[in-house]
């Protein structure tokens, strides 16, 4: 059995479609978050992390909610681009700040609206 992370883990609706197309499973995403929590990811600062997925074929951008949870935000194929640019990084950092301020009710509304899909919750 996988060593599951002890936080809530979400993926955005956009990320869900991209991961499905790349054949990346929720089990792989949970395992990757466990690795991020162990420091096995690139910390881009201000709540933004980059993690390799799918046998190093894809990169994910993951935003943290100030230790309350994680959001898979963006996915790209290594063959298509090397990295995100500085403008994108600034936008992801700003979005991480917004996510950090979300209340439980706001997160639940994002789930209800299908903007966030929860893939793991430690209280399940």
Question: Briefly, what is this?
Answer:
36% of the residues lie in helices and 29% in strands. It has 124 residues and is an alpha+beta fold. A six-stranded mixed beta sheet has the order 2-3-4-5-1-6, with helices on both faces.
Q: In what order do the strands lie side by side in the largest sheet? A: 2-3-4-5-1-6
Tell me the span between the first and last alpha carbons: 15 Å
Which structural category do the helix and sheet elements fall into? alpha+beta
The helix/strand order is EHHEEEEHHE
The largest pleated sheet is described as: 6 strands, mixed
**Morphology:** globular
Helix content: 25-40%
In DSSP terms, counting alpha (H) and pi (I) runs of 4 or more, how many helices?
A: 4
Low-pLDDT regions: none
According to DSSP, the number of beta strands is: 6
Strand content: 25-35%
Mean pLDDT: 91
C-alpha Rg (nearest Å):
13 Å
């Amino acid at each position: 059995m996988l060593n599951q992370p002890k936080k809530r883990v979400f993926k955005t609706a956009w990320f869900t479609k991209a991961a499905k197309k790349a054949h990346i499973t929720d089990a792989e995403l949970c395992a990757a978050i466990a690795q991020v929590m162990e420091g096995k990811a690139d910390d881009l600062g201000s709540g933004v992390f980059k993690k390799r997925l799918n046998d190093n074929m894809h990169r994910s951008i993951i935003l943290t909610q100030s230790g309350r949870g994680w959001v898979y935000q963006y996915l790209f194929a290594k063959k298509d681009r090397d990295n995100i640019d500085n403008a994108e990084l600034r936008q992801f950092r700003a979005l991480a700040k917004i996510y950090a301020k979300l209340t439980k009710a706001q997160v639940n509304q994002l789930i209800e609206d299908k903007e966030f899909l929860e893939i793991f919750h430690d209280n399940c």
